[in-house]
User: What shape does this take?
Amino acid sequence: MNLHPMKLVTIVCEAYAADAVLRLLAEVGASGHTSFAVEGTGARGRRLADIPEYANTQFEVIVRPELAALLLQRLGAELFPRYAMVAFESDVRVLRADKF
Amino acid sequence: MSDALLANLLSPAVLFFALGLAAALVRSELKFPEPLYSALTIYLLVAIGFKGGVAIAEAGVARVWLPALAAIGLGAFIPLWTYPVLRWGGRLAPVDAAAIAAHYGSVSAVTFLAATNYLAAIGRPYESHAVALLAVMESPAILVGVVLGKRAAGGPPVPLGLVVREALFGRSIFLLLGALLVGALCGPTGMEKVGAFFVTPFQGVLALFLLEMGIVAGRRLEDLRRVGPFLLAFGVVVPVLNAVLGVAVGKAAGLSSGGSMLLGVLAASASYIAAPAAVRLALPEANPTLSLTAALAITFPFNLTLGIPLCDVLARWLHP
Assistant: This one.
């Protein structure tokens, strides 16, 4: 089986940041994403997600390595100062490289 | 006062809220599925908006504009006087003071609903079109608070368009204004068609919703330790002062005793849905735990139990 190396960028943020994250994903040219509601704890304490307004969202995006670096760099510069969020990348391998 | 207090404390709405608080305190597993919360919110906002719209159609816009203007002025004024109190009285950072001031100038729709419920229960008439005041009072304080905070803080540039959009067309205010418009266009004939759905079950739905809000507020009670004694006192004293202001402005704007009481409740209430969303966008440096804990864990329960009957007593005293 021929697998291609890619980066999985994971972004966990307060739901208020979701619009800004989606705009950024479009700007850097990510071809798609998956998002879902999450809850948990972080450096600043509990992040209760009991009602949609206080929810937290996790985004998962598979992109080429150079795009992952750009995405993380822009996240750090533009969105980290404004919203509660964390982001990280990991190595993944995909079947169809042309999809990303 | 004791009659009013007892009537309020023993209402299904307040008792279910207390039940929700208790559920959170004993760490019961009771939890509403998120779609139910959203559905109840939509129902309540549409029901109250529609009813208010029909009332505007019956009363005519001529009787609504002056109280509405007074409500807008009141909403813009509250952050202006609470900001210095927070900044220098509470020694809070400018941006935190501005954020909290915005929350307290904006309003809580659920507190308003509970107040109309209270008036209906004790049989006191009020202007049904007062819901227009709720609709117009949500945004002005947010905008004033954001300007105050931005002047003080600087920080990264704000997407101002986004903030205005959030303050004016956030989910809740859009639904409320939209239902108000639909109600005003339909008038009483429309009400005949949907009254059985939007009016009769209303109190039951509100009770259910307050059960959920009790859980939501109760889960934040442990944050009280983190906000300090000043905000604890602020969350109780400022609503009382704003209530006096609101009732007096209501009377001056020509509202009845019931209508003035409702404007008092609006002035006393603090937003925990619309304001947090807009303030997070515009003043990201502000600590949301401070404003949200004060609005949701202190002021909301206070108003629901004591603030509402207090406004009623004030309004009756001003309208002998």
